[in-house]
Specification:
Elements (H helix, E strand, L loop, with lengths): L12 H27 L7 H22 L3 H5 L10 H17 L7 H7 L6 H14 L4 H13 L5 H11 L10
Helix pairs in contact: 1-2
């Protein structure tokens, strides 16, 4: 004998509207209350704090999705052609994309990839491994490699010798001023 399933109950439009309104107010509540709870003493960085942060981000995502129809991740992943509002916008987007392809300027990177990788080209891992191998053969340690990478990032991609040359040119002492 099998247990009979209770009949499924469909939600009415008013119940759906009430639930959406409840979600809306709950999201605004978490946006305000979560940071306040995190900032009250004792301020600790633990699972409770991370869960309040996650509640804040989820609530913010919900409100942004309600207002614009796109979530935070959809915004960060770049402009997807299927998310464009009209057929005219899709056509313009495709035309601009084709023009960039003709010029060889296609960038399929999302905003997150652009921030994380910067201007690195394909094969950057292999180049870094080769540089590491050469440096270790020359007797450099890992601390020297790390300092070189930090220096390169700090000087916007200039190598050690280039940055020293630019620094020496910039701060080169001038001749004696005879008038002083």
């Amino acid at each position: 004998m099998s247990n009979p399933q209770p009949p499924s109950r469909h939600q009415t439009q008013t119940e759906v509207d009430q639930f959406q309104r409840f979600q809306h107010y709950l999201a605004y509540g978490f946006i305000v209350v979560s940071p306040l709870i995190v900032l009250t003493p004792p301020r600790k960085l633990n699972l409770y704090t991370f869960s309040l942060g996650a509640a804040f981000v989820a609530s913010l995502n919900h409100i942004i999705y309600e207002k614009s129809g796109r979530s935070i991740m959809q915004r960060l992943s770049g402009l997807a052609p299927e998310s464009l509002p009209s057929d005219r916008a899709r056509l313009v987007h495709e035309r601009l994309r084709r023009e960039k392809e003709l010029r060889g300027q296609v960038e399929d990177k999302s905003l997150l990839e652009k921030v994380w990788l910067g201007e690195e080209k394909e094969g950057w891992r292999e180049r870094r491994l080769q540089e590491e191998k050469e440096a270790l053969e020359q007797g450099k340690g890992y601390s020297g490699l790390i300092m070189d990478h930090i220096r390169e990032a700090w000087n916007w991609g200039q190598k050690k010798e280039e940055s020293r040359g630019a620094r020496n040119e910039q701060y080169e002492p001038r001749g004696n001023d005879e008038g002083h």
